[in-house]
Design brief:
- This protein is α/β, with parallel strands linked by helices and 471 residues long.
- It has 2 domains: 46-139, uronate isomerase, domain 2, chain A, CATH 1.10.2020.10; 141-464, Alpha-Beta Barrel (TIM Barrel).
- The chain has 20 helices and 9 strands.
- It has helices at residues 14-24, 38-42, 50-55, 59-67, 81-92, 99-112, 123-134, 141-147, 164-171, 186-189, 196-207, 214-230, 250-261, 268-289, 305-311, 326-337, 355-362, 386-399, 419-437, 445-464; strands at residues 29-31, 150-154, 178-180, 235-240, 292-297, 299-300, 319-320, 345-349, 374-376.
- Strands 4-5-8-9 form a 4-stranded parallel β-sheet, with helices on one face. The protein has a 3-stranded parallel β-sheet with strand order 1-2-3.
- Helix 17 runs parallel beside helix 18 and helix 18 crosses helix 19.
- The radius of gyration is 23 Å and the shape is globular.
- The mean pLDDT is 97.
Amino acid sequence: MKAFMDEEFLLSTKTAQKLYHEYAEVMPILDYHCHLVPREIYEDRKFENITQAWLEADHYKWRQMRSNGVEERYITGDATDREKFQKWAETLEMAIGNPLYHWSHLELKRYFGYDGYLNGETAEEVWNLCNAKLQEDGMTARNLIKQSNVTLVCTTDDPIDSLEWHKKLAEDETFDVQVLPAWRPDKAMNLEKPDYLDYLAKLETASGMKIDSFAALIEALKNRMDFFAENGCTVSDHGLEYVMHVPATEEEVEKIFAKRLSGETVSRQEELQFKTAYMTALGKEYHKRNWVMQLHYGVKRDNNRRVFNELGPDAGIDCINNFAPSSEMADYLNGLAETDELPKTILYSLNPTDNASIGTIIGCFQDSSCIGKIQQGSGWWFNDNKTGMIEQMTSLANLGLLGNFVGMLTDSRSFLSYTRHEYFRRILCELIGGWVENGEYPEDYKAVEKIVKGISYNNAVRYFGFDLEKK
């Protein structure tokens, strides 16, 4: 029997162990998509206790605590941090087979030096150990990033953001990790939302432009893209219900937008026509600027209305949506490709049954302008577990070129989440190592080293084109 989470955790063959320890383990991390708070990085936040670091904004954990029958006051309510940690420890004990069990123990091992098991009985021991460790200078936000061997971070930022903290970080010569903004313009697209007009007023203020037409909306967004670009942004990200393609004429889109500006409610058909025009306009602009476009889709959000009314979004009440017509996504990409305005694009679906359709669609739009121009993103959200990662990479290998994959992203609000890259890399090396051991790929370590190091780090550096020597 193997020991729990030893040095060969998830690595069952000699080849997998070699690939991980000699190639993957030594590579830095390029965190091209996360939800870290730039202000917390600039101010070098120091956590008072492990509950703040672990449970403060982690809806993955909240969701499982509710599944364990924990009262909401111990999750997001007014219970003490020690009480919340106890409830999490008791929940984790039941999470056999869940990635949170592995992630939590990897974090305890790598950042706190704890080799035991967290459960209800050991909670006091772990609480005291972690809280003592968190008082050390090496456990601040910046130092956690540095000790995780991260070279660059892309946060997630709204077009109206002042980017104040990014500017300060760029000017701070004491911190050599680049922290760049990533453009997330969902609120400007979601005209069906009740607060849409309020948001447009904020966008007008930020851009200094009157938004009285769809054309003006796009110009205001271009204005903000210029500002983001001045602050190092080269990456966009969109959270979509699905990638739609319901074309309309310019006149029709302007009428739809004018209807919404007047305070009227638009129909579902009009909403989809507007969003198609919006995504097409921005896709063309990304191509012009050589920005990467990330499309995250396949989620149905905020399903429990009672919890949403109390806590708002990102509360652990989202689920997989099984409606994502691949034909419309293909048509959307084709609409940009027809005029040679398709940007580098990464596609992420929350529904694992979309792996094969993504794998076949990306093959339709590759070209010589970039290696792996259209990417299937890593297993996202409910899929960033062992099974989900294996399925995503196996599907990509079957239908495309796994060797050109840009690899793992953190997609987290936690400074302790970088162990997810270790988890991913171990699974990657076990998968590739198994193919080599089984005679499905030659024992050509020069070639395999290039593939493993590429997926771990080098491919993302090349694909995004970041200047890692800039700061």
